[in-house]
Amino acid sequence: MGESAILVELPDATTTLTLYRRLLAEPPPSVVDLVPAERTVLVVSHPGSRAAAERWLLEATAADAPGADPNGIPAAGGSAVTIPVRYDGPDLADVATLLGITADEVVAAHTGAVWSAAFIGFAPGFAYLRAADGRLDVPRRATPRAAVPPGAVALAAGYCGIYPRESPGGWHLIGTTDAVLWDAERADPALVAPGTEVGFRRVD
Amino acid sequence: MSTEQSAVFEVLRTGPLALLQDGGRAGHAHLGVTASGAADRGSFVAANRLVGNQVGAAALETVFGGLDLRVLRTALVAVTGAPAIVTVTRPACDPFGLPAHPVAPLAGTGPSTGAVLAAGAVLAAEAGRTAVFTHPTDRSFVVFAGDTLHLGPPERGLRNYVAVRGGFAAAPTLGSRSTDVLSGLGPPPLAAGALFATARDTAAAHAPGSWPSADFVRPATRIPPAAETMRLSLLRGPRDDRFGEAGWRALLDAAWTTGSASNRIGVRLESSIAVAPLFAATGELPSEGMVAGAVQVPPNGQPVVFLRDHPVTGGYPVIGVLTEASIDRAAQLRPGDPVRFVDRTE
């Protein structure tokens, strides 16, 4: 992909995250960014270092490379967070209708699932969270909102996301959290990084 | 930004947009933070070289010139990028072209025959008090307390870089002083009244990787004369298969025009020709990582060339990616400029 990047395609979200974690363990100096997405990992090198990055990538993805055994891969980047949510979102009833269940059942499914951050995009710290059970899969809203408040917990396109700051958005809003998803001054600016496991807890 | 005591420049006026930019904050893309940094890297690096700075020292990046700075302390500066004229107005001069101290206008000196100045071109010497020097881009020069530096509108191209020896000081965000217009990270845009001190990002003499100082460098980014088409070198893929041979040919054959909605995120190109996806490939592409220089084709068939503040992931297919040198050239496109793509795939 251009002079400074390599796009690695993978069959699904799980193998994508697995490869991302393996690559993350030991990136060489030639690599400046590793960007996981839905079914790809983008390897960005320094300009002029793409050949070195490509050699490393081939070695790291070889069948007999250290870490090729899925059991040898560190679990979920080692991190898990629980996020308190007030389920007061204006679209909670719509989500329940779309899924043919009650609002309480939506909340139970949301708090009952273990979510995992597949990748970050859209805005700094905006994680695309996916649940293994896939029960809360709803489409985007027909009409996007011009302004979604920070801390809004939302569902769309098979993902759950939390808006780190006010921005336009087309996802269904089911709740609100006071957790700070993004703070550039923090040692770890993003509360949720790719691979982080996320649980939701109901608060009033 | 800085306090009154240490400030070297006060911003008097900006053109449409003036930002602080450095080498950017690569390394945070997995957290949704784009690399940002100077849009025209070649010109930015040249500006730092002219004043003996480290490659990535922070400089000012302007759009359409129009920047006025009041100089509060002696400084070595250089302007690079789009060809433009820099005018320095000096309120009071001695016969050797050096500023009088203090720099307050000399009272009652009366009419003068005009000062003889040691350096720079003198446009006017008004009553022995005000001298106006002009400097072309791609050269370094010294400014003194009391001077006003004016960057005029470029004759062609869009962006200029103003570097000062030491670099512009500002609090870094995630290791960079660049303003990312997509996410709002970094310092706010320059505004009248802002004060800037210099940092200490000078290049260490004889250090590994240091460069010889220069008072002139060849323009790093070639900007064609007005009315001549800007040619951007393109490497094919990764999603060219969604457009087929016909789509790739349409991209290369079309005469594109730079759209007015272009910014540091991307340059929007327009043409009566659309780059149409293959019928079999119209399904949605899952979001994937993006790079600067990526030529993304949305459903309307009018490509967007991503610049340094591009989103880290995107869902529209990327038909090709510009070479690093062409990313710099694309950053100099102004609305209405004609563009063609040239296939440089190996």
TrEMBL record, chain A:
Pfam families: CT_C_D. The keyword Hydrolase applies. Residues 1-192 form the Carboxyltransferase domain. It comes from the Bacteria. Keywords: ATP-binding, Hydrolase, Nucleotide-binding. InterPro entries: CT_C_D, Cyclophilin-like_dom_sf, PxpB. GO terms for molecular function: ATP binding; hydrolase activity. This is Allophanate hydrolase subunit 1. It comes from Herbiconiux oxytropis.
From TrEMBL, chain B:
Residues 30-345 form the Carboxyltransferase domain. It holds the Pfam family CT_A_B. The keyword ATP-binding applies. Keywords: ATP-binding, Hydrolase, Nucleotide-binding. GO terms for molecular function: ATP binding; hydrolase activity. PANTHER family: 5-OXOPROLINASE SUBUNIT C. This is Biotin-dependent carboxyltransferase family protein. It comes from Herbiconiux oxytropis.
